[in-house]
Specification:
This protein has one domain: YhbY-like (Translation Initiation Factor IF3, 2-Layer Sandwich), CATH 3.30.110.60. The chain has 3 helices and 4 strands; from the N terminus they run αβαβαββ. Strands 1-2-4-3 form a 4-stranded mixed beta sheet, sandwiched between helices. The mean pLDDT is about 90. InterPro entries: RNA-binding_CRM (IPR001890), RNA-binding_domain (IPR051925), RNA-binding_YhbY (IPR017924), YhbY-like_sf (IPR035920). It holds the Pfam family CRS1_YhbY. This is RNA-binding protein.
Length: about 100
């Protein structure tokens, strides 16, 4: 679990990032989860945008993403979910 201090640090680091995945009306699927897991291994911190045509709640989508990828939920702000997962091979972020 992330502490409040770590989440603040990760929110600051994620501020300049653009979402690299979009969840549309089809919702979260296995292929998307696999691609997000691979992206998290390379980058550690990513943003996922939830499109307007998705009818699930943002919190449900965020929960599906964290459960499916093993990532930590940093923040849900607007239609954007920020995810963090410590990389095994490409460690770039050092948490406080």
């Amino acid at each position: 679990m992330l502490t409040g201090k770590q989440k603040r640090y990760l929110r600051k680091e994620a501020h300049h990032l653009n979402p690299i995945f979009q969840v549309g009306k089809e919702g979260v699927n296995d292929n998307m989860l696999q691609q997000i897991s691979e992206a998290l291994e390379k980058r550690e911190l990513i943003k996922v945008s939830i499109l307007q045509n998705n009818f699930e709640s943002k919190q449900d989508v965020a929960e599906q993403l964290t459960d499916g990828t093993g990532a930590e939920l940093v923040q849900v702000i607007g239609n954007v979910v920020v995810l963090y997962k410590e990389s095994e091979d490409n460690k770039t972020l050092t948490l406080p």
